[in-house]
Amino acid sequence: MTRLLDLYRHRALIGVLTSRELKARYRGSVLGYFWSLLNPLLMLAVYALVFEVLLPNRSPGTSPYALFLFTGLLPWNWLASSLTDAASSLLVSGALLKKVLFPAEVLPVVAVASQAVHFLLALPILLAGLLAGALGLFGPAVPLGWPLLQVPVLFVLQGLFLLGIGLFLAALTVHFRDTRDILGTALSLWFFATPILYNLADLKGHGVARLLAWNPVAPLFAAWREALFFGRWITPSAWGLLLLLSLGSFAVGWAFFDRLRDSFPEAV
Amino acid sequence: MLAPSEVVPALTDVSFRVEKGETFGVVGANGCGKSTLLKLVAGIFRPTSGRLEVDGKVSALIELGAGFHPEISGRENAVINGVMLGLTRHEIERKLPAIIEFSGLSEFIDQPVKTYSSGMYVRLGFAVAIHVDPAILVVDEVLAVGDEAFAHRCLDTIHEMSARGKTILFVTHALSLVEELCDRVLYLDHGREKLAGEPREVLAAYRLDVSAGEGVRLAGLHSRDQEALRESPEREARGEVTGADPAPEAVGGPDEPRETPPRAGAADPGPSPGADAPAAERPRRWGDRSAEITGCRLLDASGSERYAFRSGEPLTVEIDVVPRRPLDDFVIGIGLFTPEDLCVHGTNTDVDGLVPELLDAPATVRVSLPRCDLGAGTYLLDVAVHSRRETPYDYWRGACRFRVDSPVADAGVYRPERRWTSSGGVRWRTP
C-alpha cells in the first residue's frame, strides 16, 4: 500500500519520462506530432474502405459505419499499443533496473501514459468527425450532446484497467519472455472478440455472442459507443461493472507486479 | 527463471559498518561480489538473507548515464536523470547550469546524446550524479572512463565530498586510488570477507594473494612445459630429431604462444646457435642432447616448489640433468629475463668458478639466491647445459616462468635494499 503512495510520489518522474517518450518518438520525423492525428485517420480510411466498399456492413444500427468504427478503434489503439509497450517496458529499460535505484513500476505506467497522450491527441479528430456526423455529412445524423460528458470518466476507467494489465504483462514478460511473442497474436484475437467492428447487440441469437459477453473489455467498448456514437447515457449498472473491472484489473496487476518486484534487477 | 543449480550466492558472511563521513574501499578479484555489495547498499538489489541498514540518501555512480535516451538532447536527459535520482523538477532546473558547467559539455548540451562519445556520456552522467547532493556516494569503477583532466576533476570532487563529511563507498581496481582515498578497506574473496581494516595492511594482503594466484597459474604453465619436455626424448627415439643435428626443435606444443621475442645472443649465459636464424623461427629448445635437462623447478626457503615470490625472499633453482654418456666437459647455466627479453641476470658454473670433473649419472644441480631482490613483475628463466666451448647439449628457453611481488609500488627490475637519510631544512612526518 505504501508502494501505491510511492507511485504518486513518482508522478514527476512519470511526467518527465512520458514527455521524453513523446519527444523521442517523433524526433527526426518530418510531421512530428501530426502522426498522432494522422495515424488513426489513415487506419480509419483502411477499415472504412474494407467495410464500406469491399465487405459492406449490413447492420442498420452501425450507420454511418466510419464513425461507428472510429469510436471503437481509438480506444482500442490505446489499449493495444499500451499493452505492447508495457509488456516489454522492463526489458527495454533493463539497464535502469540493474544499475540505478529505479522504481520499476514507473516503466509500465509510462508506457500506458504516453499512449494515453496519443489517444487524447486523436480525440479532437474524433470530435470533429462526430460534429460532421451530427450535421448529417455521412448519411444518417449522429446524435451529439451531453452524453459526451461521460468521456473523461471512461478515459480514467480505461486508464486504470490498462495499468493493471500493463503491470501484469510487464512483470510476466521478465520471467516468461515468450509473452511478447504471444501478445501480438493474442491482441488480434482480442480485437475481433471485442465489439469494435460490430455491435454486440447485432449478434443476439448467435451462440458465440454469449461467449463474447465474457470478454472483460466488451462492456468498456460498448460504453464508449454509447457515449460517443449513440449519444446515450450509460446505465448505473454498466458503470458499476466498469468500475469493478477497472479496479479489479488494477488490483490484480499491482499485486502480481509487487510480488515479483525484487526479482527484476537480477532477471531482466 | 534460474534453476536452483544455477543460483550462486554472490555474498556470504560479510559484515561491516561504515561510519558517517568515512571513505570505505572494497577490493577483490573480478566476480568476488564487489559490485553486488554496492548494489545492495544502493538499494538496487535486496539481500536474500541478512540485514542491511542505510541511513541517508544514496547516489550510486554505478552506471553513469544509465537511462539516457539517445534521441533527445543532453540538457533534457540531464533533467530526466536528475529526476530519476530523486531531485524535483524545480531543483534540477536550478542546478542545471552548474551541471552543464561541470560536465564541460556546454557546446554540445543541446545535441541529442546519440552524438556523444562514451566519455562525454559519462561526464554528463557524473555531473548529474554528484549534483544530487547525496549523503552517501557509491562509486563503482567509473573513474576509469573520461579523459585525464576529467578523471582529476572527479577525484577532486570525491575528495571534496569526503571533506564535507559525505560517506563514500568505493570500488576500483586502481589500488593506488584506494590507498589514497580510503580510510578503511574491505577485501572480498569469492563473496566472503577476507580482511577488513587499514588500507595499507589490507592492500598488502590483497596484492600478495593476487601474486600467489598468479603463481598457481604459472605453476600450471610450468607443469605443461614439463610434460612437453618428457615427450621430447621419445620423439628423438623415433628419429624425428637426429642427435648430432643442432637443428632447432621446438618443445612447446603447436599452440604454445611464443611469448619471448628473440634476444641478443651476447646476453645469453650459454651459446645461442640460433642467433643467425630468422627471429620468428628461433626455437625454445635446442642442443645435441649429450646431456639432457629433465626437470627444472623453483623452490622457496622451505624447499617447496613455488612460482610466486616476494621480493627479497630466498629463491633456489633446481635443475635435473641426465647425461647420455659420461661427460667431463659440462657447464650448467641459468639466465633470467623479463617478458620483454631484457636479460636481468645470467650466470653459469664456469663463470662462478666450478670446474667440471665428471657427469656420468642423473644429477640434480641447485643454485640458490639468498635474496632475490627483483622488482615486481613476471620473469622467465632459461636453463642450459653445454660444453665449456659453448657447444649446447641442451638449451631451454623460458623453462620456468615466475612472478615477483613487491610490498610497495616501486619500479624496475632491480629492487635493492635502501635507506633514506637527510639533513638540513627538511622534516618528515612520523607515520
Description:
The complex is a heterodimer of chains A (268) and B (431). By secondary structure, chain A is mainly alpha-helical. Chain A has one domain. Chain A contains twelve helices and no strands. Chain A is globular. Chain A starts with a helix and ends with a helix. The relative contact order of chain A is 0.14. The mean pLDDT of chain A is 87. Chain B is α/β, with parallel strands linked by helices. Chain B folds into two domains: 9-208, 3-Layer(aba) Sandwich (Rossmann fold), CATH 3.40.50; 210-240 and 284-405, abc- transporter (atp binding component) like domain (Coagulation Factor XIII, Chain A, domain 1), CATH 2.70.50.60. Chain B is 26% helix and 23% strand. Chain B has helices at residues 34-42, 74-84, 89-103, 118-131, 148-163, 175-181, 199-237, and strands at residues 23-27, 58-61, 136-140, 167-171, 184-189, 192-197, 285-286, 291-299, 308-310, 315-323, 331-337, 343-348, 363-369, 377-386, 392-405. In chain B, strand 11 (331-337) and strand 12 (343-348) form a beta hairpin. Classes of the chains: A mainly alpha (268), B alpha/beta (431). The A-B interface holds A 12-13, 15-17, 20, 23-24, 27-28, 93, 95-102, 175, 262, 265-267 and B 1, 39, 42-46, 58, 60, 62-63, 66-67, 69, 71-72, 76, 79-80, 83-85, 88-89, 112.
Strand content of chain B is 15-25%
Radius of gyration of chain A, rounded?
Answer: 19 Å
Order of helices and strands of chain B: EHEHHHEHEHEEHEEEEEEEEE
Tally of contiguous helical segments of chain B: 7
Structural class of the secondary structure composition of chain A?
Answer: mainly alpha
The N- to C-terminal Cα distance of chain B equals 54 Å
> Would you report the number of β strands of chain B?
15
Q: Mind telling me the CATH class of the largest domain in chain B?
A: Alpha Beta
Cα Rg of chain B: 29 Å
Query: How many distinct folded domains of chain B?
Result: 2
> Distance between termini of chain A?
25 Å
Uncertain residue segments of chain B: 233-282
Biggest interface: A-B, 24 and 25 residues
What does the overall shape of chain A look like?
globular
**SS field, number of helical segments of chain A:** 12
Provide the number of structural domains of chain A.
1
| Biggest sheet: strand arrangement of chain B | 2-3-4-1-5-6
Kindly report the average pLDDT value of chain B.
79
Strand fraction band of chain A? under 5%
What structural category do the secondary elements of chain B indicate? Answer: alpha/beta
